[in-house]
Amino acid sequence: MSRKHSKGHSTTTRATQARALSKQAAQRREAKAAAEAKAIAIAAKERRQQTLVGALVMLIVVALVAVIGVTGWSRHSKSVQIKSQTTSAAYRDLQAVAQKPANATDKAGLYACKKAKLNAKAPTVEIYLDFMCPSCGELNRNLDSTLKKMNKAQQINIEVHPITFLDGQSSDHYSLRTASAAAYIADNDPDHLMDFVSQLFAKDFQPSETAYKPVSDDQIICQAVKAGIDKTVATKAMQGTYAEYMSKATTYTTLHRPELCDTALYPNGGFGTPLIRVNNCIWSLKDINYVDVAADFEHSVGIKSRDVGNSSVLPSIGASKEPKRV
């Protein structure tokens, strides 16, 4: 009896141990499976995080590109592709306009003084601008003082070329109205033309290109009076006398004058504002810092800052040489 009992006890013990071992093995398998599942979950989480980080980096890159693009667009407010080198038809249309300003070039440049006062030995500076163009305003506010002093001292001859290709950005033909007014002032009070340009580009006056609010004729007249223009002349300037002429001038200038393409800025061709030419050569604004633009301009035409406004000193490039590189 006692041997049978001992044998049965031994069998029971082995069975219990086997079950325990089996349970432990099962627990190890479960633990291993759980660990593997956790590892897979962690890896998946890391992949999701990497994907999110990658997406975020991409969004930042896209945003930066957009900012750079907007900055470039803001500085050179608008460019248009020059359609053709055939200028005859557009030029004929310009010349056929009944009302043309007398104190202007045959290519619609408005003299900033009377023709009789032009200095044949001085450089000619052409300024192409749209009165709504924010970059034109920024350039003017940094360069205007130098240009006006040199113009008054007959150290340079200035031609202002108002462009109206941003007219559609306004609800009341602001670009066209101001361009026409500038042409009238060039005819009737040219000595104050540059002052009028400055008043239109005043930081507290120039309207926004992207959030335009209507500007009345009276408001523009007020700016003209601030520029030293008689109110009667200023009022007549707003009658649109040269509106058709300035509209035709824009078509001719922006679409049919390939010599005005700044290839440094527009490698594929095109016209944009602001644009400056000196002695028929484009003075590229590609690498110009507007804050230092006056000093850069003085260097390019060959005059020292201390001589700006001194009528006895002319820029060294004279009336025919190209401007020096900055």
Architecture overview:
- This protein has 326 residues and is an alpha+beta fold.
- Helices cover 50% and strands 8% of the residues.
- It is built from nine helices and seven strands.
- It has helices spanning 2-75, 88-96, 134-152, 174-188, 193-200, 217-226, 231-237, 243-255, 293-301; strands spanning 78-80, 110-111, 124-129, 157-162, 271-273, 275-278, 281-282.
- A hairpin with a 2-residue loop joins β6 and β7.
- α2 (88-96) packs antiparallel against α8.
- The relative contact order is 0.14.
Structural class: alpha+beta
Could you spell the SSE succession in H and E letters? HEHEEHEHHHHHEEEH
Strand percentage, roughly? 5-15%
Poorly predicted spans: 1-7, 42-75
Query: Which word captures the global form?
Result: globular
Discrete helix count:
9
The N- and C-terminal alpha carbons lie at a distance of 118 Å
| Biggest sheet layout | 5 strands, mixed
Question: Key features?
Answer:
disordered N terminus; two-stranded antiparallel ribbon; 326 residues; 8% strand; alpha+beta; 7 strands
Produce the secondary structure layout:
Elements: H1 2-75, E1 78-80, H2 88-96, E2 110-111, E3 124-129, H3 134-152, E4 157-162, H4 174-188, H5 193-200, H6 217-226, H7 231-237, H8 243-255, E5 271-273, E6 275-278, E7 281-282, H9 293-301
Parallel strand pairs: 3-4
Antiparallel strand pairs: 1-5, 2-4, 3-6, 6-7
Question: Nutshell version of this structure?
Answer:
This protein has 326 residues and is an alpha+beta fold. 50% of the residues lie in helices and 8% in strands. The strands form two sheets. It has a five-stranded mixed sheet. It has a two-stranded antiparallel sheet with strand order 1-5.
